[in-house]
Amino acid sequence: DSIATEDEGMGSFYSMLLIVLVKLGLWVLCLGAARKKYVSSRSPSSGAARQVVKVSDPTLEALAQDHWNDSLSNAVAAVALLFALSTPALWFLDPLGAIVISVYIIYSWYETGKEQIEQLTGKCAPDEFIDGIRDLAANFDNRMEVDVCRAYHFGPKFLVELEVVLPRDTLLFESHDLGMELQYEIEAMEEVERCFVHIDYETRPYDEHVVSKVPELRERIRTQMSGSIGMHSV
After folding, report:
1. Domains plus CATH for the chain?
2. In angstroms, how far apart are the furthest CA atoms of the chain?
3. Does residue 192 carry a pLDDT above 70?
4. For residue 47, is pLDDT > 70?
5. Alpha-carbon distance 188 to 118, whole Å?
């Protein structure tokens, strides 16, 4: 009976070892497919260098993490079983290993969930990404000045808001076309979901979105803008 029990135990061990190898292979495949590299497009006129960026697929990353957790839990169970078969007094290693792995899996999925929630709630983009967008816009046209550059998560990708300044005498159709071309340029980047470009004729010492929420400030700004329009219409 003891020989049969040991044979069954070794059969279980080899089965778990096979599962570990298969799961590790799936983990490598999913992780490689999830973390693709793309070359961000840059127009010749912008003068900015082409940049290789990494874009992650959250679904494939979640599958990769699931395969990794499965391989880890089966590996610990296999090692605990091997010790228990060789030394019956170490029977407690199996439940102890299960507790440790359970705590690790709970923590790893907590971190994954936290990251996804931050992205869904509009977490600000990394500084290096915002700086790259600002440099691209600043080099897009020599008449263009970047006033405000914002970027924040829209899921795994980014939503970009740009406020750029052109000379006052720039024709309407020309400023519109420049803004659209800049929008197309930024939206061509794989990590960008959507880009909004606002064209202005001067820099503003205030946040225009804040002005819309304060009636007194909005009225004062409207008066200033009306005076400016009247002066240029004379």
Report:
1. 2-120 (no CATH), 127-203 (3.30.70.1350)
2. 106
3. yes
4. no
5. 24
